[in-house]
Specification:
Blueprint (H helix, E strand, L loop, with lengths): L2 H4 L4 H9 L5 H19 L2 E4 L1 H6 L12 E5 L27 H8 L3 E6 L11 E2 L3 E2 L15 H8 L5 E6 L5 H7 L2 E4 L20 E6 L2 H11 L17 H4 L8 E4 L11 H16 L3 E4 L6 H27 L8 H12 L2 H22 L4 E5 L14 H15 L8 H11 L6 H6 L3 E8 L5 E7 L5 H14 L4 H4 L1 H4 L6
Parallel strand pairs: 2-3, 9-10, 9-11
Antiparallel strand pairs: 1-3, 4-5, 6-8, 7-8, 7-12, 11-13, 12-13
Helix pairs in contact: 6-7, 8-17, 11-12, 11-13, 11-15, 12-14
Length: 500
């Protein structure tokens, strides 16, 4: 199978070709390996290739995606007896004892694992530039970040190495790379996809696994493959009456959609991001939906503080795990990670619990909003992709060092303006994605706009808990009204190996 032919198909179409005997899985995987060999040296999307294994991997022929190649994210999507580094030198020797539910169900779906994709350390950033793996780059402009934390997956999918790749999202890590790479990215509801067997609720329930894809139908079909609880999960979400792959083909009816473009943190929003929302709103109106300006009412800075509190606790726990299990030391973690870990270790337990309880306030505010609207529409990100290395500024490093010195001196910083400043530095570029994570509600990024320079811009739509059906139905409408797959049919011309 030639690269040029391979790039024309999404995962659903490739599976159909294999099923009908027009091409073999090995031929498809060889085309994927050829594409990876052409572009990965410039994109740095794949951190752990498994090309030889993929060509020899057995798969259930009855699987939905039987024989189709998939890349796994090097964070939580663990394969038995294979490394999973979480983007950290502290976990570089971590070997997974068993498959995660994501991996097990992907195997059952017939997918062939081509390797693992790069992520920032512990998935903490909206850029993918770890000290362990180096910087991953955006195929639309290799001077720019592909986003994070599923940045390697986003870059690999956009560049045509695979038609879809594993991702997870605890604050925007599916939606942000989808927006920056011109992909479709759905973060499912809390509990829709099991985090087992190691976790009950990943990131205290803020994070969910899924994929980034080039088409809506691939995302829907993969949701069918991955959905459902596992033994010991904390709760069960009712399954849809029929498969998402079938539901997405139905009309969502006439929807009432609330639109907002202002950052919940009162930070600046790029004109391109606002334009993308306004263009999408006009398309939605032409499709028969009612669109008006409205937004959920909640305290934005409180949301930022609660999200940072989650960071502090999770990172300190991950560092402790690496030290206890793998013999890691402080020097094995990046400066920002060490700082966040210190903030976690010094945060009063009562403060952490109070912030976790406050998640309920955001859920109730969003619930009140959905009492009058079916969905919300807003930018996926507040800014366009940062340049590689741009966010490692002297001012940023100075603030981190100052906070660390304050902590080492034993002075309290958790109720100071320094932590608020850190929150704004961390979240100002991507202020729209944390709400769905802390409330456990589904949200998606849809590639609805391209700038004059040829960069993709995503818009975000969010629904009530369990509302994946209406999101996928609306996404299918938007995909038909403003098709974006044509960009990927021209991948070979847009990203020839010489240009990368």
């Amino acid at each position: 199978m030639k690269q040029s032919e391979y790039l024309r198909y999404d995962a659903t179409a490739l599976a159909d070709l294999i099923r009908r005997g027009e091409v073999t899985s090995r031929e498809v995987c060889e085309a994927a390996v050829e594409r990876a060999s052409s572009v990965n040296s410039s994109l740095n999307a794949i951190c752990f290739p498994q090309f030889s294994e993929a060509l020899a991997q057995k798969f259930p022929e009855q699987g939905v995606f039987a024989g189709v190649p998939l890349l796994l994210k090097d964070l939580a999507q663990e394969q038995a007896d294979r490394p999973c580094t979480y983007g950290s030198r502290g976990f570089k020797n971590n070997i997974a004892p068993q498959d995660s539910e994501f991996v097990r169900r992907s195997r059952e779906g017939g997918l062939v694992f081509l390797g693992r994709t790069a992520t920032p350390e512990f998935g903490l950033k909206a850029i993918t530039e770890s000290e362990l793996w180096g910087a991953s780059r955006n195929p639309w402009n290799t001077k720019l970040t592909p986003g994070g934390s599923s940045g390697g997956s986003g870059a690999a999918t956009a560049a045509g190495i695979v038609p879809m790749a594993g991702a997870n999202d605890g604050g925007g890590s599916i939606r942000i790379p989808a927006a920056y790479n011109g992909l479709f990215g759905l973060k499912p509801s809390r509990g829709r996809i099991s985090s087992g067997p190691v976790m009950g609720e990943s990131w205290t329930g803020a994070s969910s696994d899924h994929v980034v894809t080039r088409t809506v139908r691939d995302s829907a079909a993969m949701l069918d493959v991955l959905s459902g609880s596992a033994s010991g999960d904390p709760f069960v979400i009712p399954a849809p009456s029929v498969a998402y792959a079938d539901l997405m083909q139905q009309s969502p009816g006439s929807l009432k959609i609330g639109v907002f473009t202002a950052s919940p943190y009162d930070t600046q929003v790029a004109p391109e991001c606002v334009t993308a929302v306004e263009e999408t709103a006009r398309i939605l109106e032409n499709l028969g939906h009612k669109v008006e300006y409205a937004r959920p009412e909640f305290d934005g800075m409180a949301l930022a503080r609660c999200y940072l509190g989650l960071y502090f606790g999770e990172v300190s726990a991950m560092m402790a795990k690496a030290k206890a299990r793998l013999g890691a030391s402080d020097s094995d973690f990046e400066l920002d990670t060490r700082l966040i870990g210190m903030l976690g270790n010094t945060m009063p337990l009562s403060d952490y619990v109070l912030r976790r309880q406050q998640w309920n306030e955001f859920a109730r505010a969003l619930g009140a909003f959905f009492g009058g609207y079916n969905l919300y529409l807003c930018p996926t990100t507040g800014q366009m992709p940062a340049r590689i290395g741009e966010l490692e500024t002297p001012a940023h490093l100075k603030l981190a060092a100052k906070l660390m010195l304050t902590l080492k001196a034993g002075r309290m910083v958790h109720r100071s303006g320094q932590v608020d400043q850190m929150a704004m530095e961390s979240l100002a570029r991507t202020p729209f994605t944390q709400l769905a994570s802390l409330t456990g509600t589904p949200a998606m990024s849809v590639p609805m706009h391209w700038t004059a320079e040829g960069l993709p811009v995503g818009v975000q739509l969010g629904a009530p808990h369990g509302g994946e059906k209406v999101l996928l139905q609306l996404a299918a409408q938007l995909e038909e009204a403003a098709p974006w797959f044509g960009y990927y049919e021209r991948l070979e011309n847009a990203f020839p190996p010489a240009a990368l």
